[in-house]
């Protein structure tokens, strides 16, 4: 039983460390998300049809910023 508790505790610590590292890797106006979208908001509107499913974890635009034509999160 002690091994299970130690393993769970170690897993929790590793998860927290990985989440912190991923947050630091995001660029300006970006935050880490465990559920990304295949159709992020863009400054130039388009008529894409996007499925409502979670994509792989990664950085997303934060605070109302959107992707510009260069892939940077900016306030349009």
TrEMBL record:
InterPro entries: Ser_inhib-like_sf, TIL_dom. Residues 26-74 form the TIL domain. The keyword Signal applies. It comes from Cephus cinctus (Wheat stem sawfly). Belongs to the serine protease inhibitor-like (TIL domain-containing) family. Keywords: Signal. The keyword Signal applies. This is Chymotrypsin/elastase isoinhibitor 1. The gene is LOC107268167. Residues 1-19 form the signal peptide.
């Amino acid at each position: 039983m002690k091994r299970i508790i130690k393993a769970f505790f170690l897993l929790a610590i590793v998860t927290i460390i990985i989440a912190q590292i991923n947050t630091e890797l995001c660029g300006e106006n970006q935050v880490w998300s465990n559920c990304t979208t295949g159709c992020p908001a863009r400054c130039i509107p388009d008529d894409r049809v996007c499925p409502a499913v979670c994509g792989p974890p990664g950085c997303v635009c934060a605070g109302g910023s959107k992707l510009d034509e260069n892939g940077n999160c900016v306030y349009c």
